[in-house]
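Sample entry (218 residues):
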Amino acid sequence: MTDAEAPKPEPEPGHEYPDLPETKSIAAWRDAAAHCKACDLWKKATQTVFGEGKRTAKVMFVGEQPGDKEDIAGRPFVGPAGHVLDDALEAAGIDRRKVYVTNAVKHFNFIRRGKRRIHKKPNAEEIAACRPWLDAELAVVKPRVLVCLGATAAQALLGRQFRVTQQRGQFVETSLASLVTATVHPSSILRAPDEETRRQEMKAFIEDLSLVAQALAG
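Predicted structure, serialized as tokens:
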């Protein structure tokens, strides 16, 4: 039995999943996820932000959660961090149009500061509640290479013991895909304290993605 055909998961008390599709269609899973109430994040978020890309994509990138821009647009990686990812993919020689991008959590988690909505890291329960959607994406797309962007995605998929700072750029053994690796989340580059640090961090990020490009070409 594949992940996409797995029995309906049990949400936390007081929460519920919508009817899960039996078909292996990204569009069907996206439509179902739009009605997810498996945790409290749906109450504040504008909408569910499901993954995006071709079903035949050879590489899948998984981040933490949508940000403010993504929450409004309903699409993953269209905000500032997405632009960093786009630039790095181009520099590494990976066609952005041929990858699948998604997040471990499909709703924007935030705290308000005046008119601003500030990112808040999702907790373990929220990550677990969203896992069926990510499992479905993996089962439908079946990427050859899976890339975790940042600690939240890496630990959600590879275990809490995984350390991006120590293992970034390394391919690890797992049943999730033929080749699985992790690197930093592009938002971390935007948080660099100065321009020189940002340049160095971007260079390292591109080097990690270049390893992915080499794996895809091999």
